[in-house]
Amino acid sequence: MSPKKSPQFIDTTLRDGNQSLWGATGLRTGMMLEIAPVIDQVGYHAIDFSTSTHMAVTVRFHKEDPWERFRLMKERAPRTPLSFLSTGMRFISWETAHPELMALSYQLLVRNGVERFMVMDPMNSTEAVLESCRAIHKAGGREIVGALVYTVSPFHDDAFFGAMATRLAAEPCIARVYLKDPGGLLTPERARTLLPVLRAAVGAKPLELHSHCTIGLAPFTYAIAPELGVDVLHTAARPLANGSSQPSVENVVANLQAQGHAVDLDMEAAARVSTYFASLAKAQGLPQGVPQEYDVRYFSHQLPGGMLGTMRRQLREMRQEHRIDEVYQEVERVRAELGYPIMVTPFSQVVATMAVMNVLAPERYANVPDEVIRYVIGRFGTPPAPMDGNVRDRILALPRAKELAAQPQMPGLDELRKRFPAHLSDEEFLLRAVMPADQVDAMVAAGPCRRGYSPALAPVERLLSTVGQRTDLESVRLEREGFRLELARAGAQAGEAA
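The structure assignment produced for this chain is given below.
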């Protein structure tokens, strides 16, 4: 029997693996650059590399220039396209941005090395996805992938997703369509009905699948996906796979090969990538992904894995952890009342926060946070289903709702540029337009990012950082077999290795 068709693979290690397991803060630029040439050898169709949220994290937590990260990564991995996930007409801020600002952001991403764009809308608005895709095409994006965001609700049936896929595939600038399953909710049974519908809807265009292992389903679904019409699978290196991340490339490839599929990847290079990240995780004290247990309650509340831990901790601090089951039920109720938003950022936070407040307050919706009000007044788009009329009217009647509705939308580029010095590069201007000034100032002051990283030297670097903060030490000497390090205050000789 001849081998079955070889699926393509997208590597999610640096973006979604880092986000799912390490809160998007685990990897600095130098860590990525160190392994980039090896990732480039594996044979991935593309590297799922960044989002505007990741760019903000790069500035805020690491004081690194995200534009520099793009350029350096492209130099180190020239063969494999860098992919950017665009979440609608927004850039870093969750509110809708001015079309001129979005156009500039896409132009700069292309200029700095991004070739592939995956485009989703958290509300699953087809028009919003098409608007973004056309803007990216105009900016020079080479490969544009339109997303369907999978969720479970009375309104999101196979017909809904099939109709959306048909419209996306009919758009000339969209080269591919992908099903994005952020909650890991796609069961093999549902895949057997949904994936053939999507395959028929997209016609000759490639169909991709991106799912999470949050309740352990994704590896089973990936094993049958190619037989159901999926051309491309999104996977991560094993240390940053599983958990709430994607399936590991090692496991998916082994399963497909056992079923007779040819897989055109350099698995020796893939193994070196996993070895590197295992060493990095150990050196940095970061968790590696482990297989998850199946939890049927997840289909009801659909809260992301990271949020569950945070919510339990907050309830425990308030001595209310015993009410967690009430919160789960309230999450389901609030989601229905708000029109079944997909439980991804920021809507999972919007729904969960409101649910906790409703459980703890004497009366439901007695206090409504600003983000819930912004959702109801339409600042995040139109919900997939109608909102509960009583809940909507109650929130819109709040004085704070009128204040937030009166706030102006983000201005156009001409007005924004007047607020900043004319000598700024477009890249720095865009960051300053959407981020706090002190964070961008700190990034600029930090200078160029590091170009490399060694897990073996990480303990020494932490020691040096700790010692550098001590004012009560005149000198330090560290010795072990084959190594000696001496440090002294200014004026004394420092730094010797034997």
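Interim note for the steering committee: The longest strand covers residues 114-120. The mean pLDDT is 92.
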